Amino acid sequence: MTWNTSIAARILRVNHGGEHGAISIYSAQIGAARLRAPDLLPFLNEALAHERSHRARFRALMPTRHGKPCRMMWIWAVGGAALGLISGVLGREAILACTEAVERTVHRHLDDQIRWASDEELRRLIQDIQIEEESHIDYAVAQRKGRGFGWLRHAIAWATETLIWLSTRGDSERLARQLAAGAHV
Ligand SMILES: [Fe+2]
Ligand SMILES: [Fe+2]
């Protein structure tokens, strides 16, 4: 495995795990929203379908880049379900605050990757997926009635970063530093 393929493989691993977490979040929120916020169900179902296709598309690039899913997928499943359930139980505004916080955190990571990736196919895929992630942020921002739950947004942004760090055992941070230092995929 060359150094270059190794960076592509690491990007794929963290992104694939993140999509797995997003699937858990939206799945848990859909359960809670049936009672707490039925008007959000069409959006939540559509977002869930997007996240499933994102996970499959990152997975599909792994074999040619010697990549493997992260070994800590359960962390994403458990963490995502917890975030989805907590926000779901708190109701409509909290669900939207959660979407905004998670998607903004993901967006920042994808931005860094797009800036530095020279693996064309991977970069195009990330750009493509980012368009749908942006639509999730836009919906959440447009639908929120106020700017409440600021504490929840901060807590969830922190939890998302922590999940990313834990699942990669710190590799996400090293990767970001290498990308910023000019390492190319
Ligand atoms: Fe996604
Ligand atoms: Fe998303």
UniProtKB/TrEMBL annotation:
Keyword Transmembrane: yes
Documented EC number(s): 1.14.99.60
Membrane spanning stretches: 72-90
Keywords: Iron, Membrane, Metal-binding, Monooxygenase, Oxidoreductase, Transmembrane, Transmembrane helix, Ubiquinone, Ubiquinone biosynthesis
A matching Pfam family: COQ7
Gene3D superfamilies, per the entry: 1.20.1260.10
Superkingdom field: Bacteria
Keyword Phosphoprotein appears in the UniProt entry: no
An example molecular function term from Gene Ontology annotations: 3-demethoxyubiquinol 3-hydroxylase activity
Protein name as catalogued: Ubiquinone biosynthesis monooxygenase Coq7
